[in-house]
Amino acid sequence: EILIQNVTKIYPMGESKVYALRDISLSIKQGEFVCLLGPSGSGKSTLLYVIGGLEEANEGRVDIFGERITDYDQNQLSLFRRNYIGFVFQSFNLFTRHTASENVQIPLFFARRDKRTRKEQADGLLELVGLKDRILHKPGELSGGQQQRVSIARALVSDPPLILADEPTGNLDSKTGKEIIELFVNLNKDNGKTIIIATHDKAVAQFAHKIVYLRDGCIQNVEENKI
Amino acid sequence: EILIQNVTKIYPMGESKVYALRDISLSIKQGEFVCLLGPSGSGKSTLLYVIGGLEEANEGRVDIFGERITDYDQNQLSLFRRNYIGFVFQSFNLFTRHTASENVQIPLFFARRDKRTRKEQADGLLELVGLKDRILHKPGELSGGQQQRVSIARALVSDPPLILADEPTGNLDSKTGKEIIELFVNLNKDNGKTIIIATHDKAVAQFAHKIVYLRDGCIQNVEENKI
Ligand SMILES: Nc1ncnc2c1ncn2[C@@H]1O[C@H](COP(=O)(O)OP(=O)(O)OP(=O)(O)O)[C@@H](O)[C@H]1O
Ligand SMILES: Nc1ncnc2c1ncn2[C@@H]1O[C@H](COP(=O)(O)OP(=O)(O)OP(=O)(O)O)[C@@H](O)[C@H]1O
Ligand SMILES: [Mg+2]
Ligand SMILES: [Mg+2]
């Protein structure tokens, strides 16, 4: 399970401070599908970063699958992320000089698969997200929604048990968006992956076991969905 | 008015080609509010780039307010854009080393306003999009939806007669998204601006005079909305 206890995240801004997260506590069971909803600026991305060990909390603790990641140093965090977490970024974060296929292969370098297996695995996933004909395109040669799907494929390719997705359908039309949501739902139902999605898309929320409402860095409400 | 005649845009990809736009013809009246809808990869951004003179068509002509921009060289295009067009980019394109206020002030340098007027105008617009408390933040210190709103403010600050917006609500919750749509609707109704919005958000389409459906680089259908 994932345990977030009394997490506070403060960004210093010159003389003042931004309280991006205020005393957040939340527990997520293994295999749960969780949605983070909330207005722009309410702290969704920051919460995902803290869970993923990409940002350090000022206060509080985060435990993931029994490991206290808030105690880890950069190397331990890096290793943990590589083995356990697939992260879909809100602004994609793709390598601009590499093709879609190369971008998706990157997590597999650490798993030390041979080149042919890496390529097969990466391209198979790109086909799954509808990008079979865009495998050799670099990010600058892709539409916004295509870049978003490369970012999704990259997060999934090493088959991580925890997926953190930051607005994964923001640049997609409703049909393509549904296909992506279906992909996440299947990974959750069939493969038992724990999934936390920050989104503005209410269509995603209907599939969640749990909906967490954020506002101004605080949890306003948690809704349990009977699925 | 805006006249697009038989526009084709081809991207060469090694041995093959991508037909991003195929023989597109479309006329838009001055003061019209137009929505471009279509699946991810269908050509929306490319069409906006060609209209805005940011990409060169391989075939066809584009006339805007009586000027044949497809005949213009880079300098003429640059001047035309500066005077007539506000462009909201799908991936924001903000200067990362400058604050939100400085980013929004940039189009006003060409209008040669003094520093105090520029700052007032820029900050006024940032307040209008809900970013009064984020004026001194750089893009890396802003949420995704906040960066998107800075990009919107920057496109509007020099009061251009033509606004081209590429998925301006993609990173916004529905409440903030509605406020942005309302802003565009008012600029169209009260200030007579011509607005072309590429979007996946059907909530935007309901306000459009005209909805253009794209698929695989072609216009599938044009719907006139009685508003
Ligand atoms: N520089 C390029 N080189 C090759 N192909 C390109 C290039 N830029 C865009 N494309 C391709 O052209 C097609 C249209 O791209 P465009 O960005 O206009 O789509 P879009 O409708 O805006 O999609 P989205 O909704 O995902 O933003 C896409 O299939 C894309 O892969
Ligand atoms: N590096 C930073 N320095 C200062 N303030 C920051 C920084 N990063 C984020 N913030 C602020 O923290 C708050 C939360 O940001 P966050 O990105 O988590 O919001 P969000 O819920 O993901 O928003 P969106 O829906 O727009 O993506 C925002 O008000 C933002 O301005
Ligand atoms: Mg965010
Ligand atoms: Mg686009």
Provide structural commentary.
The structure is a homodimer of 227-residue chains. Chain A is an alpha/beta fold. Helices cover 34% and strands 29% of the residues of chain A. The first copy, chain A, has helices spanning 44-51, 74-84, 100-110, 115-128, 144-156, 174-189, 202-205, and strands spanning 2-13, 16-28, 33-37, 59-64, 67-68, 85-88, 162-166, 194-198, 210-215, 218-224. In chain A, the strands form 2 sheets. A 6-stranded mixed sheet of chain A has the order 6-7-8-3-9-10, sandwiched between helices. In chain A, helix 3 packs parallel to helix 5 (144-156). The longest helix of chain A has 16 residues, at 174-189. The two termini of chain A are 19 Å apart. One adenosine-5'-triphosphate sits between chains B (11, 13, 18, 20, 38, 40-46, 90) and A (134, 137, 140-146, 171).
Topology:
Two copies of one chain form a homodimer.
Chain A: E1 2-13, E2 16-28, E3 33-37, H1 44-51, E4 59-64, E5 67-68, H2 74-84, E6 85-88, H3 100-110, H4 115-128, H5 144-156, E7 162-166, H6 174-189, E8 194-198, H7 202-205, E9 210-215, E10 218-224
Parallel strand pairs in A: 3-8, 3-9, 6-7, 7-8
Antiparallel strand pairs in A: 1-2, 1-4, 4-5, 9-10
Helix pairs in contact in A: 3-4, 3-5, 4-5
The complex binds adenosine-5'-triphosphate (2 copies) and magnesium ion (2 copies).
